[in-house]
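On clarity, I found the account of how folds are encoded harder to follow than it need be. For illustration, here is how one protein appears when written out as sequence plus structure tokens:

:::
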Amino acid sequence: MTTVLNVKIDDKLKKDAQEAAKAIGLPISTVVAAGLREFVRTRSITISDEPRLRPEVEAELLAIEQDIKKRKDLSPSFSDFGEARRWLEHQQ
């Protein structure tokens, strides 16, 4: 069963949200419902002036950053394509 939720928001916010939702192929009702589901699940709301990644994405990027600092899983620089290809062939 579905119901109607009437919410007063700024006109520009509504238009911007509809455009963003349309850009990824979703109706605005799906976006609102997802936000409400997340609120019910976590019992929290994050208000920030900076966009934040999901915690699991942040953790993955942090692990990648650590690998880069250790120079793990990085290729050397190459002067031409042939040199890069030879290096790749030896990695397999």
